[in-house]
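Help: why these numbers?

___
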Amino acid sequence: MATSGQPGPGDRGSTAPAYPTRQPSRWKRNLILLALLALALWLAWIWRGLREEALVGAAYGARVGCVCRFVSDRPLDSCEGDLKIAGLHGAGRWVSLSEDVDRRTVKASVPLLAAQSADFDPARGCRLEPWQD
């Protein structure tokens, strides 16, 4: 029997496996990456609209919260309840209110998107702070 000098599959010193191993399927990984890319593109497409809606919702929330808290003298939790049932295309449920009693200010914010404050002046009522672009 002639040998070619290379170990065969039955030789003990062989480093190659007896049967070829199958490469793992990559279609799942590629599908997930494609879905993440599509989600990122969709968010980039609608981001400006989301941000504008959040600014309007925060401004509305600050104004209504200021009037509710300092003009009507209601608790801030009650004012947040008013925002939850307001129209705002659902943006009202994301608005959260906080107050600074000493400065007579109500701050409304939409997480990661927008924040707005309204100050109470007894002579002029509640006024929004100017928007910062």
Remarks:
- Residues 107 and 117 are 4 Å apart (CA to CA).
- The first strand starts at residue 96 and ends at 100.
- The beta strands are 96-100, 105-110, 114-121, 125-128.
- Residues 27-71 form the longest helix (45 residues).
